[in-house]
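Protocol step 4 of 6: record predicted structures for both targets in the notebook before any analysis. Target 1:
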Amino acid sequence: MGSGAIIRAVLAGSLAHDRLRTALAVMAIALGVALGFAVQTINRAAVNELSLGVQALSGDADLEVRGPRDGFDEALYPVLAQRPEVAVASPVVEIDAKLADRPSSLRILGVDPFRAALIQPALIPATTNPLAMLQPEAIFLSTAAAQLLGRSPGDTIVFQAGLRTVSLRVAGTLNPGLSPTVAVIDIAGAQTQFDRTGRLSRIDLRLRSGVDVAAFATAMKPALPAGVAMARPEATVVAGTSLSRAYRVNLNVLALVALFTGGLLVFSTQALSVVRRRSQLALLRVLGLRRRRLVALIVLEGAVQGLVGSALGLLAGYGLAYFALRVFGADLGSGYFRGVAPTLTLDPVALCTFFALGVAMAVSGSVLPALEAARTAPAQALKAGDEQRAFTHLQPWTSGLGVLAVGGIAAFGPPVSGLPLFGYASIALLLVGTLMLLPRLAGFAWGRWPTPRLPAPRLALAQLRGAPGQALVSLASIVASVSLMVSMGIMVTSFRGSLETWLEQVLPADLYVRAAMNGDSAYLPPGVQDRIRALPGVRRADFMREQQLLLDPDRPRVVLIARDIDPADPGRTLPLVSPPVTVAVEGPPPVWINEPAAALYSQAVGQRIALPLGGRAVTFTVAGVWRDYARAQGAFVIGRDSYIAATQDPAATNAAIWLAPGADPAAMRDILRRDIPDGERLEVAAPGEIRALSLRAFDRTFAVTYALELAAVLIGLVGLSSAFGALVLARRREFGMLRHLGMTRGQIGGMLASEGFLVSGVGMATGLGLGWLMSLVLIHVVNRQSFHWGMEVAIPWGPLLGAVVLAMGLAMVTAVWSGRVAMGVDAVRAVRNDW
């Protein structure tokens, strides 16, 4: 028989014995590949779209000067424009302008058309009237903005500046090739209409030929005001994507977990196939097939499953990515890429990577069964009943314990480039180490289980004690799926519970007022603040100003919160996670930083930090660290008096209102909107409404996480059911013999139910313990190193108990049902090979 004939015979034999399980294994690999490829495709498309948008808006600029979100003094513009190294300098005012008729904003760019034409031609509309852009009330929309707003030339768009309205006329559209959702107006109109007089958001520079860009940026650094940086335009992309990188990587890891559980299903399929074909494979060995060749043939079976599954997964992944973009958007519910409408493209690197991962996972799942088949002595395997000896070769305790120890040590590793790579490695090693110990753990548990009196449970326990290796096939699926479910369940429950507690701490007032949820053009002027304080029924009103400062050009802007706070008792206002320190009166004023800021900028209580306020560096003393789940880029809280003294900016963006005894919050909401000038534009909410909105946003953010986790758990449960069913079907001769000895179908069914209970019980106990350990790594390592948030561990006992009961019931039902199928063959026919 030639090599090709042997390969075809072995593959055909595998398919003939395990068509359903082979199909399930292929679909599991396909699902894992599809999830990973879809997430990667969406993330890549979003990042590419952001990069293209920055490139289009910056044009031919070599360098970009930018600073705080509310801009910097325009006096810097002539200083840079007159430098001999600069060929063109183009000033820009950027405004996220709140739309008056909807709860969203539009990005408006105020440009000098004469300068922009030389460096940012995409921002110059094609119009027959070259002076149209100089009209302060004229606005030009990109194609995406015109479609989003449903506006065409001649229409009017109303924006909100402060609490007043600004009406702009659509005078035309921009270059159709400009993909971002933006609008362009004359820079003088932007400064006048939106209260940005004397302020610029950025300056785009194109240097003269031959000038060293990096050297020029370094030389100009001392001349820039505090909080203003000069960098290449690509730095904006880096800063914009750095905040979402950890979220995107976590989604990719979850998708790979689903692929890993698919590999376990391949292992289950191949292991059971080897058990059922034990005598046939032994016969091939007797006929001259070498061990190495047999291993290669069985691994080839897994590779074929991986090839088919990976190909199907790539097709399904592209379709899934298309669907997810339409349902969740490019941000996948996270909010990081909100407003970005990317175009899906096929990345050859991602295609090859996930195709290779799918094949590699399937091959890995076939290695152990192949080694088991090659290790078996042919003469022994040809004897009836030898399948009970399968997988009895156990790893020593030290191997699994060593892997677990390395996994525990890895949990203490530092982040790598801001990513918790050691944390991911720790979780993987904990899982692999536990799987290596499973046969011994199971044998230890069953060896100490009290022997039942009833025949059926007694036989079940004796079967498991005699062949613990076979239980590895079912146990691997149980432990993998349960540990994943438990770890993610504990992590998400802990996060959600900590978020609820945090919201209760930071929302102590009766009502909260803000100028607008979206955009940075709306604010509360000083006169409005005085009117709110004077309203009847208002016992106390605290006002807050939020700004965004640039501390590092390679990172997103941090949030500065200026609010009234008692330095002697900051814990009344902020949920502190560290003991506060008292700042000396003669020293720098206090600043309280959130957990992400402490981690990202290496700050600790008692240290000093300089914050750029009003164009100069103002030194503060870190007086405490507080918990904050809303600002992962970092946030700093200072006293409002310190902020006004440094910036001369008395405006506010938010207000917290405490009502007098007996005052009705609903009535006060009406009074605010009626008695405050332009009060109908105020957004007023009770603490309960804000908590409900925040929790809905949390659930939306974790919707994709839930879906990826559910996929992995379902694959694991399918593997559990498939493995248990196949093991039972492989024992037909055993059931036939038991029937000959006088056992009834009911007793055999009871024996199988007992086996299902004992196997799933060990798997559940192991999975629960492992899941708890993995959740600690997720909470205290992966979460902290990814997002720098702390949280309190909370265990969802009810859902976990329900999941345990469901999985154990599934194992028992599968065992009994498979036993009925196996016993459907006549008992005499089932044992005829033993006569």
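Target 2:
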Amino acid sequence: MTDATSTDILDWSKGRPAWQRDALRQLFTTGAIGPEEIDALTELCKSARGLASPRTADVLTKDHLRANGGSTAAVALLSVTHHVGVNALAPEQTVSFGLALTVVYGQNAAGKSGYTRILKRACRSRSTEVILGNVISGGKPLKAQATIRYKDGATEDLHKWHPDLASPAPLTAVSVFDAHSAGVYLRDKTDVAFRPFGLDIFDKLSRVCGEVRFKLESERGKLLATPSNLPSLPEGTRARAIIDGLTALTNVEGVRAIAMLSEQETTELHELRAEERDARSADPKQRARELQLKTKRIESVAKHTSEIERALGTAALKDLAAAAEVLRVAQGALQALRKSVLTADLLPGTGGSVWIEMWEAAREFSRVAYPEQLFPAVTDGARCPFCQQVIGTDAASRVAHLLEYVSSSAQAEVNRADDVFRGKLSSVTSAAVDKPDIELIRTEIAADDPALGNEVVDFLQTSARIQRDVRDAVRNGTQLPTGDALSTPAAKLTAMADSLRKRAEQLKSASPGMSLGAAKELQELEARVVLAGHLKAIDDEVERKKQISVYAQCIDDTGTKPITLKSTELTKKLVTDRLQKTFKDELAGLQFTHLAVEIQSAGGAKGEMFHKLAFTNAPGVLMTEVLSEGESRTLSLAAFLTELSTASGLSGIIFDDPVSSLDHIWRERIANRLIEEAKKRQVIVFTHDLLFLKLLKDGSEQKGVECGHQYVRYSEGQGAGVCSTELPWVAMGVKERIGVLRNRWQAADKLHRTAEPDVYEKDAHDIYGLVRESWEQAIAEVLLNDIVGRYRPSVESKKVRHLHDITPGDCKIVEDEMTECSRWIRGHDQAAANGTPFPKPASLRDRIDALENFTKEIKKRRKSN
């Protein structure tokens, strides 16, 4: 992806929702977004609409534009080390890669696929595969782990890989081509057929949008499936219309106002309920008599509450307080008189209320003792009512003063005020608040009108409290209560009684049934009462609808049309005549000239701008129905290499069995193309095809391209994926074989010195066989100048001119050495009488030396010619 394209995407992203800008940042920096990141992006999307707690997005900026796979420095793999958990691969095995061409050879089931699966997950690949553990081991598979070493330009780094960890950006610059991705380039327009390098970020963003949308729709689906718990109300009522019309915009306070009944409507509801019960009565006239009796009971309660209100109401308490004040004033005046009339020599309390009571008692006794005299009797010889001694002159004078005090107007005023106060106090304290039948009638009232029943209870309780407060104040000499506002429910009770009387009269009439209008009004009021009881459910339902509505907005935010439009715009910019020419050049390089094929636009959807390969002269014909496997693979390879031409760097590419099942013609063409590519970038080829291996080795040698190789094999002791730098024997040239033979000879020489002869001889037999095979390879590769080769279909006719230097001596050396080797290989039985001892290690070493000297001599001779 070019810098201009990256900047264009950055500018475009500023118009996208914040969570998509966060997703773009992750795609640019890590190349992948996992399940946890999808959850976080979903919460970001919801947060922007108020469905989740506030969150801050980490949006794409110019600092993040080191695009996915967009490093301008070439990225090359150095090695991949398997630790545990990938298929049946042996642990701690490393496959190493050179910086030019590396061929990783292994037979089927040797373990190559395990390593390529790791690289497909870590690098840029059109397809990935699920990585299983060793499922046939009998134990629990371990979590896959590997280490990938790579170079990003001049910097070496490593990645501790496991399947759930996103790859670092440099690794995503390395591209993988395999049998799965090959088909992508040939399918119809509903699949990706061609994608300019780096623009798959739109594809990934679209997939992220799809995953976020899926989660949002799932959550919204749960909301839609949540039961509302709303009441079932009669059709045609206003309350039912409210329930049916609930939306996210419903004013809940307005619903609450409609649901709550006024006091008058509550009374009307009770009356209508009673009227309904009356209408259902089996004997209307008996019901009328019952209502008449009930009317009288309620009227009695109304009368009782009125009497209590008169006795204990605010007016009565004010009158009582006024009488108490008059008594207090009169008592004050009398006290003043007492101070002036009563002398200090009198006993304490004289003239007080107790003393007055004693005086009045003495007066009553005097009327008995002296019925004809006025009290106090002080005539000569008269006796005191208390001590019954004769009253002397001084005593008579004192009694006269006391009579003056008692007979004063102040005392009379106190007496009158006290009488008034006590009368009013008696009215308050003796009022009968509770009556035996009141509770039964109150319960009866509450059955018809709970509020009125409670009001009666409150009235009676308040009245009883007022009585207690008055008694306590009089007893304790404290201030009398002024009284709470004691509001009698008599009027409401009277209204109820009148209503009952009216119902009784209706029942006595000829048409006692409930009118249609009354029934409808009752239904309306009942529905509103039910509505009032479900206000919480209504609140919850309105909130649920609000959330559903907001979820719909969030889901709209996941739409991919803007992504598709931008992807289409940028793809059209990049898919130019230059790219189409590149594709044609690739086909020409692969000698694919017998069919006219071109890159065509296939439209776009969900953020992806599709292209496909199509026949120029038959665009409606499916290519997969016409092409052979070799043609398909060749076209796919050309499209793959064309796609890579859009990248800004020359990072490594990996081919997994690119010529599987193809014939020798296509093998050779593809081998030549990959060798050419290895001249400018790292090329890694995994293959099980010996011919293809040979073609790559020979071709790279001819074209001066460094070719490394790795051998992946299965080991009984270790398992699959065991790696080494040596190729299998059958794929080795003479030089490599001589190296192997010398290593084998050293081991055999040690056996000769330390083990039994049979052990040495067994190993030496095998080495003699390998030496003989190496002479056969030397004949083809060195003596005959590699004109023909095993697994190679072509004959190198240009090399024939070098064969003129072959001498009879060369032929004799070959014949003698092969004869000597043949004597000691398995399969040639020795005559029992021969008696020739088995060659010692020195003789075996001579055979290897002879092979090496022969090849060196031939090469030296031809190099000088």
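Step 5 preliminary note on target 2. The chain has a mean pLDDT of 83. The chain has 28 helices and 13 strands.
Proceed to step 6 after PI sign-off.
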